[in-house]
Write a structure and sequence with these properties.
- This protein is an alpha/beta fold.
- It has 4 domains: 123 residues, Rossmann fold; 164 residues, P-loop containing nucleotide triphosphate hydrolases (Rossmann fold, 3-Layer(aba) Sandwich); 74 residues, Helicase, Ruva Protein, domain 3, CATH 1.10.8; 73 residues, Arc Repressor Mutant, subunit A.
- 48% of the residues lie in helices and 12% in strands.
- Bound molecules: adenosine-5'-triphosphate (ATP) and magnesium ion.
- The site of adenosine-5'-triphosphate has 17 residues, from α7 and α15.
- Magnesium ion binds next to α7.
Length: 474
């Protein structure tokens, strides 16, 4: 196979330089030459050289001026300066402006070859590191987005379909279901991946500060505004802004946000000039926005604009088959992080983990696995689950849910036996929930009677009703 030669553009008013190099180094390099800066700059785009040898002293544009112009290009080849006697200060300036190396005139042809090879090798390594970094970054989030359930396959398919579009995406799902991971994945897989990803948690920033945080302010806009400050929209320019907890955005700001969405323009707090930005918007919420619209807390026009695509993240209890995968993923993560060697749960504990309702979803699972790894003791899972039960954590639904549609439980054939122990036995919590709902409906939501039939304590039933978010069906 023919060797691909390094193409070198020589920009020098002295034609001898290019001629000598072509004669001496033709077997490894291909030389093209320009007699001045203007021609040289043009040839960068027409010839696409791998490297430029640039004379410092030329009539017309100096080498340094040419270098400055080249620096304005999106990418440029490496530049080696050729300096004559007494041009040390120019050499220093050129190096400050990004020249990779310099060669003194008069030079030995072999010496030039060594310089070119060194610079090319350094440039190759630099590119490799940049590529690797990019690859690592792009693998970081989406690659650790675990899930093999049908629900997660759907989510992944939408992410891949819409990531590189410019559509606004609204990510919905209960707390801890992975909304932020989805937002970051969308950015990583988009064409904006090398540009900023700026996150704003609308619920965490006090109302009064949110506007200046998002849109920036001008000096003197309010007490303490001593200088102009860019807002997050400006910082996200060309990239993605992730507005987390969008349901908490005050109404006054919603109209300003709508304007940015429609015109890609806004005015800083206390400012008069329009600022133009090119930003892709991704939002997330665990709130019921439809209800907020009905109650006039959220603008419907903004909702439709933000919601060009919806990604709904199913709660963990609806994709229990993902639990063992997630457990392994977090075991790996925390064993590595804390330098531990706790790699396996017993089948009973896995069973408990799979059966639990996970009101705090993946974040809650992750925390539990982390504690087990740190303490190297899986038995604490039993305590942790019991304590989660006793705290009666509410499941925070994104969509209004009607959970009470009890299906007959096909575990026990005796329909009069409502003993929780007998009927549910080792079956998973889904069935436990169905059974409790069935008994509650049968007793017309007489909880004491239901507890008796289920053969569990009244208190325990109350916790389960709360945990499973059971409510009276009409
Ligand atoms: N599919 C997943 N695979 C691996 N880790 C996940 C997955 N989903 C969520 N996680 C992890 O769970 C934790 C919670 O996820 P994330 O912060 O994205 O949730 P969220 O939906 O934004 O929650 P909240 O509404 O409370 O802000 C994070 O540590 C995240 O890394
Ligand atoms: Mg979040």
């Amino acid at each position: 196979m023919a060797k691909i030669k390094t193409k070198v553009l020589v920009i020098d008013d002295d034609p001898k330089v290019s001629w000598i190099l072509s004669e001496g180094l033709a077997s490894n390099f291909e030389f093209v030459s320009a007699r001045d800066g203007i021609e040289g700059i043009q040839m960068v785009s027409t010839e696409k050289p791998d490297l430029i040898l640039l004379d410092i002293k030329m009539p017309g544009m100096t080498g340094l001026e040419v270098l400055e112009k080249l620096n304005k290009l999106d990418t440029r080849p490496e530049v080696i300066m050729i300096s004559g006697h007494g041009e040390t200060s120019y050499v220093v300036d050129s190096m400050k402006h990004g020249a990779a190396d310099f060669i003194n005139k008069p030079f030995e042809v072999r010496e030039v070859e060594i310089h070119i090879n060194n610079v090319m090798e350094r440039s190759r390594l630099k590119k490799e590191v940049t590529e690797l970094k990019k690859e690592l970054q792009s693998k970081n989030v989406y690659n650790s987005f675990i899930g093999d359930s049908e629900g997660m396959h759907k989510v992944k398919a939408i992410i891949e379909q819409v990531a590189s579009s410019e559509l606004s995406v609204l990510i919905r799902g209960e707390s801890g279901t992975g909304k932020e991971i989805v937002a970051r994945s969308l950015h990583e897989l988009s064409n904006r991946k090398d540009q900023p990803f700026v996150k704003v948690n609308c619920a965490a920033i006090p109302r009064d500060l949110l506007e200046s945080e998002l849109f920036g302010y001008e000096k003197g806009a309010f007490t303490g505004a001593h200088k102009n400050k860019q807002g997050r929209f400006e910082l996200a320019n060309l990239g993605t802004i992730f507005l987390d907890e969008i349901g908490d955005m005050p109404l006054e700001l919603q109209s300003k946000l709508l304007q940015v969405l429609e015109q890609q323009e806004f005015v800083r707090v206390g400012g008069i000039n329009n600022i133009h930005v090119d930003v892709r918007i991704i939002c997330a919420t665990n709130k019921n926005l439809e209800q907020a619209i009905n109650q006039q807390f959220f603008r419907d026009d903004l909702f439709y604009r933000l919601n060009e695509i919806t990604i709904f993240l199913p709660p963990l209890r609806d994709r229990r088959e993902d639990i063992p995968l997630l457990v392994n993923h977090f075991l790996d993560k925390y064993n590595n992080l804390y330098n531990k060697k706790f790699y396996q749960f017993s089948p009973e504990i896995i069973n408990r983990l799979v059966s639990f309702e996970w009101p705090g979803n993946i974040r809650q699972l992750e925390n539990m696995v982390k504690q087990v790894v740190v303490r190297e003791d899986e038995s604490i899972i039993v305590e942790l689950i019991a304590s989660a039960h006793s705290q009666g954590i509410n499941v925070n639904f994104t969509q209004p849910q009607t959970v009470n549609n009890p299906q007959p439980v096909a575990v026990n054939s005796n329909p009069d036996d409502f003993s929780l122990k007998n009927r549910v036995g080792k079956t998973v919590a889904v069935e436990e929930k169905r059974l409790i709902a069935e008994v509650l409906n049968k007793t017309n939501w007489n909880r004491r009677k239901a507890a008796e039939l289920l053969q569990i304590s009244y208190r325990s039933l109350l916790y389960k009703i709360k945990d499973y978010d059971l409510n009276v069906t009409k």
